[in-house]
Design goal:
Chain lengths: ~80, ~150
């Protein structure tokens, strides 16, 4: 599964995208973030305040309860500030 | 194309002309152009999510067309580094009557600001900072759900 990070989340994690294979049982966005936090301190720091984080699964905005089973692309980012 | 994400500048006059040229079914053209505010900001960089951005803007256009009878819609958003005074965003609506064109243009901007995956980073003398999302933008977008 491809993970994408944008804006300050990208800067804190240090990469814009990466391929990951979450273990069995990690099947929602929320679980994915919890799993990422256990990998390295930089993830833990980046996801310390998850209230400020938005998510899109396969380019559709959704929430932390959404399933990631079979997803090709999960994007995590701060609230948008375009316009 | 009605929806464009691009690094290059655009010309509002040309875009408005393109919406209405050769047609006699349009009574109202409304446009909004957003510019980079200067002050202590020396540069602004617009980041986006290629692929999803275009999709999100197309969905916003589709939603506007569902709610109002529109003869034409244009949405342009620039990305990359932008200097103070530069154009960032443009929305234009064409309809038979002005009320619809005004309303739809405002809707497009309110939704674009809260739904389209763009992020602004400002450079100032004190360094660079990511722009915070504004609650007033969420409030502006939320009022359209009540109707």
């Amino acid at each position: 599964m491809k993970l994408l990070y944008f804006a300050w989340l990208r800067e804190r994690i240090g990469v814009g995208s990466e391929e990951v294979s979450p273990p069995q049982g990690v099947d929602t966005v929320g679980a994915l973030i919890e799993w990422l936090k256990t990998r390295e301190p930089r993830y833990e720091a980046a996801f310390a305040q998850t209230a400020a984080i938005k998510v899109a699964v396969d380019q559709e905005q959704t929430d932390f309860d959404a399933s990631i089973v079979g997803a090709r692309e999960v994007a995590l980012f701060p609230p948008v500030t375009g316009g | 194309m009605a929806v464009r994400v691009q690094e290059e500048d655009f010309d509002p006059t040309t875009e408005l002309e393109a919406l209405s040229v050769g047609r006699d079914d349009i009574g109202a053209l409304v446009s909004f152009t957003g510019l980079v505010r200067g002050g202590d900001v020396s540069e602004m960089v617009l980041e986006h999510y290629p692929g999803m951005t275009e999709k999100a803007l197309e969905e916003i256009e589709e939603e506007a067309r569902k709610r109002w009878s529109l003869q034409g819609v244009t949405i342009i958003h620039r990305v990359g580094p932008l200097a103070p005074g530069a154009r960032i965003v443009f929305v234009a609506t064409a309809s038979r009557h002005r009320a619809v064109a005004f309303e739809a243009a405002e809707f497009l901007m309110d939704f674009l600001k809260t739904r389209a995956p763009f992020w602004k980073k400002e450079s100032t003398a004190d360094g660079a900072r990511w722009v915070d999302a504004r609650e007033t933008d969420d409030t502006a977008a939320a009022r359209w759900a009540l109707e």
